[in-house]
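Entry for zinc ion complex. Fields follow.
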Amino acid sequence: METLACGHVAFAAPSRMCPHLVRPVREGVEHVRLLTGRRLEFDLACGQCDAAGKPVTLVEVCEGCAQRLDEDAEHGSLTAWRGQPGVDERPEAVDRSVVDWRLPELTGPVIDLAPFGADPGWLALTADGTIAELDPDADRCAVLATGVLVAEPDYQPWAGRPLTPRLHVSDCGRFAAVVNDYGRYGRVVDLHRPGTTTLRLDSGSYRTNLVPFSLVFARHEGRAVVVHRTDWNRLDVHDAESGRLLTDRAREPVGAGQRQAHDLDYFHGRLHLSPDQRWLADDGWVWAPVGMPVSWSLERWLRDNVWESEDGPSWRPLCQRDYRWDTPMCFVGDTLVAVSGIGYDDIAMLDGVRIFSVVTGAEVSTFAGPVGALFADRSRLYAAAPGGLQVWDPVTGHRTGSVPGFVPTCHHRAAGQLAAVQDGVLRRWDTAGGHGK
Ligand SMILES: [Zn+2]
Ligand SMILES: [Zn+2]
């Protein structure tokens, strides 16, 4: 052991620093991370060294001093990543064939796509509010519902986010929800009884335009239920067919200025359901604005504790990122959640994923590379990068393959397919072709 530049007699940390960040390590000093090209390893430089445009002199410091800067980074002192991370490749044979099918004439352009039934079936939502079943094998579309959109004439966009109608379908295939992402309203319709709305959805009036409409279908005691936002900080679960409320919970009245028991200071965002339907993840945010993906047990919520979605023992924040929410996220298997972006602030975010356990809340792996919408099965993570699909091993972080030019928007888990509708063409790819299961 030797005396390091920080003055401590200790082992050297993996990250080196410019001399201005040491002796002593100053609290809250702004700095950048200089990626070394070996996975996520980096050195650190102060703003002046970074701006000088010359190679940065780096000195060795102890792990404790490096740790202090890591903690500072979480609180906003990391201002940028420089250079490139290392991406490990482990190429595997990938069947790149994408099956294209030109849709028969529909009444309007397809604006969303959702998986339907156990066979590789798909439902499309068109701009004029039609829900159609796509049947590529028979080369036809069947209209299942019309007039399903909910207008919001008073919509005020925030940060350019347009009101975006979105289609969700229950896994039994009987119920569909059409909601307005970044809007307030939606509805659940019964596809077996055309023209029937079983539930009118209202997510409240407070800052709905910052988040996609929180909604996910699930199965509970053999019935389709719908988990959805009923206020900025409240979710409820209704039976999809009868509209019966399954999460009835009234707050006790309190005096002025007092905090309600179970009061949740959290703006719900896009919801994700684990494949085994036992866990929920929520891409919401806290004031102001800090993205904070959280997770909790849907099973506990419906069975044991009606407040589980507010402050139940399984409810846990996964990470916090300033100005960053409404980003790609997905379950990997039943108990892991991949969250897009490595960093603590939207201005200093590296392309990649962080993977968290919903059981413990711990970050179990982090690797650079994946960008775009995320999908996963038990063995592979799929990232819909702008140039095409990339296939990743979520355990080791290796990139194992790619399907150039194919940018899916939708995952049919039961059928093992990824798909998108692009210019009137349904494009599908079998995840088994990427060694997924
Ligand atoms: Zn410096
Ligand atoms: Zn030190």
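NOTE: The radius of gyration is 24 Å.
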